[in-house]
Amino acid sequence: MKKELLDMKTRSLAILIIIFILFFSIAPFQKVLLNILEENKEVIELYADRFGASSTISQLYDWNIFIFSQWFGKNFGQMIPIFAIILAFPLFSREVENGTMEFLLVRKSRNYVFYSKVFSSLIIGFSIVIIGSILPIIYSLFAGKDFLYEYALKYIIHGIIGVWLWNNITVFFSIIFNDQVKPILSSIGLLAITTALGFLKPLRWLNTYSYVLGGKILSEGKINWIYTESLFVIGGFILLASYYIFKNKEI
Known about the structure:
Elements: H1 2-7, H2 9-24, H3 30-39, H4 41-50, H5 54-59, H6 63-88, H7 93-97, H8 101-107, H9 110-143, H10 149-176, H11 181-197, H12 208-212, H13 215-220, H14 225-248
């Protein structure tokens, strides 16, 4: 597992840097954004009323609404499935593409190789969700903001399940394909297709973004447990299928 963690060191550091840059380009500038909204109030209200978003804009004056809508509900939340895919796509396919998988399996069992790779990507993915979720808590303490930290803690559950699902989907593609391009294209393509289909009312459940962005936490203050359990089970089945294929795949 140590080797896998070291292999992901560069990607993990890059993701952490992106998270810090995103957060500190948003959180300290609430007043700047609100001043821009005030300066363009007439134009914004015209379009906001047309799209039924006038109340949403006025709520941005609330620190909690601002962070949850702009950080969890947009920038950080939107990146969580992408981060999971970036961490998982080369896990198996790169070893096959570089011709190192045979050497690896001579030294270690298939079970060890599978579990060390999957657990490494999940551990880093979960850590990224936790770091991104507690950043607003730490910032609020230093900035003297009154923050509903329990909402952020609930968001960690949604984020971790999002990583769990998209990590396992990408692991599946990384095992069945023998180069690094197809797993990332397949995973990003599936994410785009399910998100687009989710805009259709009967297929709304396909849009995992509506869950990962924590809409129910913001609107009702609750974790969406039904969707959480469903995605956990689906992710588990995908991981089991990946394990079966890897155990029986000719290298």
